[in-house]
Amino acid sequence: MATLENTHLRVIINPKGAELQSIYNKVLQMEYMWNGDPAFWGKHSPILFPIVGTLKDDTYYFNEKAYQLSRHGFAREMDFMVTAQTANSIQFTLESSEATLTKFPFVFRFDVIYELSENSVKTTYRVSNMGKSTMYFSVGGHPAFKLPLTAGAVYNDYYLEFNHPENAGRWPISKEGLIETSSTEVFKQRNKLPLSKELFLQDALVFKGLSSNNVALKCDKNAHGLLFDFTGFPYLGIWAAKNADFVCIEPWCGIADSVNTNQQLVSKEGIQVLQPSKNFERGWSVSVF
Prior knowledge:
This protein is an all-beta fold and 289 residues long. Helices cover 1% and strands 42% of the residues. It has one helix and 22 strands. The strands form five sheets. A nine-stranded antiparallel beta sheet has the order 7-8-9-10-22-18-17-14-15, with no helix packed on it. Strands 12, 13, 16, 19 and 20 form a five-stranded antiparallel beta sheet that branches. A four-stranded antiparallel beta sheet has the order 1-2-3-4, with no helix packed on it.
């Protein structure tokens, strides 16, 4: 495990998957991350690369060849190397290999950087195309925050508050994990989303093109929560496992296949296009209080 620490926070990251596992507020003596109980969901904050979500039949086609990738790609199950570290930051790196090329035919370097600043943690994804041809990929985050955060509150006391009123609909997910063809209303020009465990019985809430670029997790019973900034991410997922005491706030540059996909990687919705020798970078941050 790797640890970052300042006067406000102590953060723990597992080199397997470069997975953030703990955000502990030393001043408040509070943990904000889900504990990874495998009875519900044995992850904390997996990184989604080189795809986000599910492919139809776990298969995509590129240059007339079929490739198989399981949901959310392979990065979350692979060992990253620590390639840079300062007092307030650490960088993990995954590079393409013979094993990855059988599933994803691109030569890449994938850096994940964690940085502390007072009571905030910033996570940056940097994808570099090290090959000689155009690269197609998706990337995203999947951090899970514990609920309730403190004694004296229950799950249903919490809500998500977006920084703009929203009209974006929820895009339902089919039983195969694919995005349906039409959305359903959620916000109706409001900016609050009350949380309940029943909210996730039909899988994640998937949003496209939100007006907001940040969302706060709040509770009216106390002053503790967090502010999550997802500027630059065109998709956002909100999810929890059935009856589990957490909520995931998931910023995505990419999305699961639609039910009517043609399975061609180059035309996949949300796919990122990166030219040789170029870098792609996006970051999200969470401030805890």
